[in-house]
Amino acid sequence: MDDQKKDQSNQSQGAGAGAGATPPTPPPPPPAKNSVPTPPPQYPAGSGTPPPPPPPQGAPQAGGYPMPPPGAYPPPPPGGYPQGGYPQQPYYGGYPQYPGAGAYPPPPPGAYPQGGYPQGGYPQGGYPQGGQPGMPPPEDTTPANFQLGTKLPRELKVKCPAHNLKFDESKFIRLLAGSISLSKDEKKKIVESVPKLKQEQIDELIRIFEEEKQKFAALSKKHVPQLEKLADQHYQEWMELEREVEQTQMKQSDDKKAEEIRKNLGL
What is the pTM of this model? Predict the structure, then answer.
């Protein structure tokens, strides 16, 4: 009797202890008959994580453009595409039409050496002086250093009237006489107007005449014949001006002497 009570007391204590503890995990069920065992998941080496799911259809691939969905483009024409592909389309306005044979005139005789140029480009030593065969030689632009007023005599008879200016009178008269830009009458008026000029005006005239002389001296030999013709024409005009001035001075001298004689005679 006492043994039965002890057994009941132990069972009640074991039940009370089991109510507060976690029950053990049951063992896995046995595999079904004739079933294939499921292999463990395969992850990339060293990653330990499953790979990402594949992108949905139409999503852009890495480093590229999105793939068009099915039916985005029309089907190919009947018979397929032409062999070799479609011809290239021209730019806006079309490609330029190059001239055909005979569009340009033939080169002049002797312009190119017979049989073409030797292999390797231009002839050894370059072209002869004067340029390519059949081409006109280049123009010589070396200054001819043509000097105005070289035909004038050393002593000029035209003199400046009395004035209060400061300048080299002989230099001014020689520059004026050698100028090929002024006529004889214009030169005569300049000489007569010297007493009325200001200092800056006479300085500007000298500067203009010197600049004219330098510009004509810088011209090449091609212009020398025309310059000589102009220089000779203006030389003749200046000599005429000197003869006129000489006659005027002689008349003034004669009139002065006649006036003195009349005074001496009391007339």
Answer: 0.47
